[in-house]
User: Fold this.
Amino acid sequence: MAPKQAHVLPDMEELSFTDSELDYHVRNALKAAVQGDCDFYNQLVAVMHHKDQLVPEEVALLVTCLKALTGAVSCIHIVHHQSLLAAIFGMSLWNYGTDVMDALVELLISLAASSGDYVDLCLEMIVSNFIPPPSSSSYFIELLKQPRGLAKKGQVLDCLHSTLKDIANLVPLSPLRLEKIVRDRMPNIYTKEPFIVIYVENMLKLESGAMHELVGSTMLVAIMDRLIDLDVEIAWDDILQDDFCKGIFDMELEDLEKTDYHVQQDGDELTRESFIQRFLGGNLIAEKLDSLMVLTFEHLTSCSESGRLIQVFETLIHSFQKTVLTAYKSKFTQFVMFYACSLDPENCGKIFASTLLEIFVSSIYPEWRMSAVAYLASYLARAKFVSASFVAATLESIVNWCYDYCKDQDGDLNPRAHKVFYAGCQAIMYVLCFRMRSMLSIPRLKSQLLLMRVENILGHPLNPLQVCLPSIVEEFRRLAKANNVFTVPETFVDYGLLESECSRAFGGVERLDMFFPFDPCLLRKSDRYIRPNFVYWSMVRSTYDEDDEEEGTSDEDIADASENGMNIVDDGSARNFGEGFLDLDEFDTSLDKMSITPRDSSSKYGGGIRGFMQMPSRIRPSTNPESL
Amino acid sequence: MEGLKESEANLVVYLHPSMAKCVNDAILRELSSLLFTYSETFDGVVLAYDPNVRSNLAKILPGIHPYLGVRLKAKLLLFSPKPNMLLEGEVVKISRQSIHAVILGFSSAVIADEDIRDEFKYKVKHGKEVFVSRHHKKHKIKAGTIIRFLVKSFDEEILHISGSLVAVHTGCARWLDANLEEWSQADSTTRKRKDRDEKEQKTADDKMMANREMPSLKKDDRIKKLKKKRKEHT
Assistant:
């Protein structure tokens, strides 16, 4: 090679080394160090340690030394050159510019390919470079808030991932070791938010990168596991506090609009923002979960755009069954499934529903079955993108199972013994509360509904109406009566109660009687992704008291709805939404119509709330000490 | 290619009782966990298996979990490279100091420049790196070539092979097969002499390099350098 002038050693301008000469000297230094002569070797190690505020000459020196080492990897010995290797593996790409980064990764690739001893070390170094060096964490946290910080992050991550790909080309089994290292080094839930977010960003990059077939599913599963870890750390106490009056909880959050619509409660004005802020603001775990879920949503969107969503969904649904379904009342993680289904209702949406149905019908664990049917009911009720006919078909399967179950039963009501049955009945009623109108408006579905043996089930001696959550039973009865659909027998239930002894009994310790997993998402950033596809209770017009012209309509909901072209009811025959929609007077707020809260509490608040009564649309533990 | 062998193994696979319903699947799953890992018992890397379960009976292990021990015979395809075996693989990267190849799609091999015989000269042709034989211009090694090399050592954990292209019968497999007469001549003395001469030339060059006035090897200049460094850093 042609002699190169002095960009080589800054303090030796009078000398010039050719690249091959420097290679030669570096090799000699390495060999000499094995023999015990460490002078040049130590200088080399010292060069590796340069990292702060490098001037161009130092950068050039570092780059050239790295290049020389790259050529001399066969002379590097894992034991004799320990300090050199430690210096190299201790370097962080975040501290350097692209010249040094490129030279460093070339060296890593060369090392990894030269001997089996270095493969794990190189991979571990690359993975630890997924996040900025912890020693200067505050500097980088600030930097990452600026555009140049984001550009830097992009540079570093691109460099790291192309290095991993290059290593995989040379060492075909490295992805296997990589996935284990990535999983083992995943930050725990107490790591600072920016770092855990960057690490997960790297994992998602691996999932969609060149190695996705080999490591992709491990990455997704590990991410879902971490989401659940964060989820279970958010205590229910953070969301619900005893001093907060029950009445408030009976509202669905979307009805507390940011600007116009306030709730007068003991003189405090509460907007949606302040509501969330009160419970989850400043909750670091919730914020981390929120950011990670948004990252996941974005990733799913890009998977959908590149046509990979189905394969990714397969992994997600396995992970869901293993960890989310079995977790005690997962609060928000399940929205990952919801979002994925919303991106592809025809495939993913249907797979999700049929998997849940399958678990309900044939799993051997009663708790999983109850959990699955609760997920299914909440999903069918809340997913705007699920067609009415699909709801009807799935509902029919649940009804058929319940019918087959109870027709062979002689006994009386027994919440504990038949808890899966009661869970199924409650699911049927819950779904119908949300979807009855939309089903009735399509003649074919109406007749399908009428043919379902709902009355037989509800009228059976096992008495589900007595056992299921009274709030749901009441609402269902009201709707059935108003629509002249089913004849629902009267029961001796205290009216206005949210829950009862019997419902607690069938719900068991885990209170699966009050589990509505797809209730509105309380994580602010994630909710923005979910909202467009979400059915709020207030959007489901109740059918009684139609002529009641109550005020207090939700402006934003109307705006939303008209933007979306009013596809809530996909049959298009929602007459009240159709022509007179912009007429605020006609739009009832169903807040007034639901009758879940105890009548007492509405009088407690001076009746001014007009009974903000709701479907049990908040997941809430009862105050009974048995629960939780 | 050497290094591949077929073995018959008598195995006992222990299955968890929950697998009692789907024994065949469970066996296959257990066997697949052996793949691409080096096993001392078999003395090789399991590449493929073909199980043959003879009987329907399995012994139940005593203990907390009553595992089922299923006996079976399996044919295993094993890869166990030993030093001085001749292997073939596809070259994935050429650099001045090394040739990297992949064997059987999963095992990485590297041949360092000291193990590449002097016959081969490193060149960059049309932007592509290649090793060309000095004696036979057609004998080239570049990315995509299937090379034949001797095994020097085998790292069992990462399945990494260190190889050598020193011997005459190593190099580009296709060229070697097509030009049998060229390199396996009975008259090998001329070849030997040529190589010896080249070796001598190389050591002479090295000596010259070492004897040149290289200031960094002189003590005083090194001290000067260190002093200057210290000055700059204060």
Observations:
- DSSP finds 30 helices and two strands in chain A.
